[in-house]
Design brief:
About 60% of the residues lie in helices and about 5% in strands. The protein has 15 helices and 6 strands. Strands 1-2 form a two-stranded antiparallel ribbon. A two-stranded parallel sheet has the order 3-4. Strands 5-6 form a two-stranded antiparallel ribbon.
Length: about 450
């Protein structure tokens, strides 16, 4: 997951840096780089469609063995026996209900396109760090639509994440301005020995471009957070294998882009981002763009597969930790490739912003102990374990004896004792941490 996730962002930035027109011109200012976020979004959805391959392989192998298809489920816990066992199992997602996945696919399409636009104006490390603001929007939307409750330390962690993102974006813009001024001075000094006039200065400052890119990335996180919330609502009601869900979202997203291409082509004069025939010509006639697109599609599919495997066999907390390490690895590789520079003391702001981003993410997931004055009085934070990500968003700590199931109340992590195993026939809800003695 770490390798494929990091390579996906790095290859996307590499694709944006490829010259596709006027590459033989000695003046670099006249070179045209590959700037096609719509085509890049399409290649991402094609990569998600590759998640169908292991599903099809499992189906074919089961047909040969004359056994039913066994797809991975979201939870490995066996439901309790008794009359309520059937209610604990959500109905399968099939038929026309599969079209419900079109809504998160549309959110994914919009968010990914906006992030691809932001990546054109920002370094890849700034792009990846700014995506860390996703936890803020997911937390807010979870409170509004999923009726969850966040503790004070979690709200403070969200504010810390936003402060870190702001410092990262600001420091990145200052670094690009400093690098631009240094390059301009070097070019001017070299041209004094020749009769060639120095290049004209760029009217738009780099700080404006970086801030515009950060704005696009932040705005994209709203749609990505909406996608996560809608997916959770669908998964809570219907049963579907994660790989199947990712494959369907890739299919619906690719169909949406293909159907929207005639409409987007009419706005080719407004922005080169919508000049899809020109983007197709650039992609086909530039081998580096074409091959990098294939690598991006493959890395997206593997990243989804490995990410789901980490969530299933380890925990969602481990997945968030790996994603944070991915941000650090992207920054280190970008420095090694020369895509970014370390400048004193501007780079210190970027390090501080990244540290705030990591600390806020860890604090939100209860991986670090919050300050005493921020701890919830009812339930002190214990040592982090594999169920930490489920405890952080519990709406209540005690369930009343009602006919509603824990899933209906937006809670998880409880075991329902069947009525026939209790002396008075009532239903008793017991926390998993203290299993009932039967």
């Amino acid at each position: 997951m770490l390798i494929t996730g990091s390579s996906n962002s790095l290859w996307s930035k590499y694709q944006d840096m490829q010259c596709v027109e006027n590459c033989d011109d000695p003046n670099p200012a006249r070179h045209v780089l590959y700037e096609q976020p719509v085509w890049q979004t399409l290649q991402m959805f094609l990569g998600e469609m590759l998640c169908f391959l292991p599903v099809i392989f499992t189906w074919l192998r089961s047909k040969r063995a004359s056994q039913p298809v066994q797809l991975p489920v979201d939870s490995e816990e066996e439901p309790a026996a008794g009359p309520k066992a059937q209610l604990l199992q959500p109905e399968p997602l099939h038929g026309w209900r599969v079209l419900l996945l079109w809504f998160p696919a549309a959110c994914d399409l919009t968010g990914t396109t906006l992030m691809n636009v932001g990546l054109l104006y920002t370094p890849v490390s700034i792009y990846q760090m700014t995506r860390g603001a996703l936890v803020l929007f997911v937390g807010v939307l979870s409170v509004i639509f999923l009726r969850r409750r966040l503790w004070l330390y979690q709200w403070m962690s969200l504010i810390t994440v936003m402060a870190g993102v702001s410092l990262v974006g600001f420091s990145g813009s200052l670094i690009k301005d400093a690098v631009k001024d240094t390059n301009a001075t070097a070019i001017a000094a070299s041209t004094l020995l020749e009769d060639v006039p120095p290049p004209q200065p760029i009217e738009e400052p780099e700080i404006t471009k970086v801030l515009v890119g950060v704005f696009f990335i932040l705005f994209a996180q709203v749609f990505t957070a909406t996608q996560f919330v809608v997916e959770e609502k669908i998964m809570a009601r219907y049963s579907v294998a994660p790989l199947v869900a990712v494959g369907y979202e890739g299919l619906f997203g690719a169909l949406s882009i293909v159907l929207a291409m005639p409409l987007l082509a009419r706005y080719a004069d407004v922005s080169p981002f919508f000049d899809l025939p020109r983007g197709w010509y650039q992609m086909i006639n530039t081998p580096t763009v074409l091959y990098s697109g294939l690598v991006i599609a493959l890395s997206i599919s593997l990243f989804n597969f490995f990410g789901l495997s980490v969530t299933r066999h380890v925990s969602a907390t481990a997945r968030s930790l790996t994603d944070t390490c991915r941000t650090l690895s992207i920054w280190i590789v970008s420095l090694g490739l020369g895509w970014e520079k370390l400048l004193w003391p501007i780079s210190v702001l970027q390090v501080v912003g990244f540290s705030l981003l990591v600390y806020g993410t860890f604090l939100f997931n209860s991986l670090v102990t919050p300050p005493k004055f921020l701890r919830p009085p009812e339930d002190p934070i214990a040592a982090p374990d594999e169920d930490a990500e489920r405890r952080t968003l519990l709406a209540e700590h005690v369930l009343e004896e009602t006919a509603a199931l824990p899933a209906d109340l937006g809670q998880s992590g409880y075991d329902v004792m069947p009525p026939h195993e209790h002396p008075d026939g009532s239903t008793v809800v017991v926390p998993v941490a203290e299993p009932p003695r039967r």
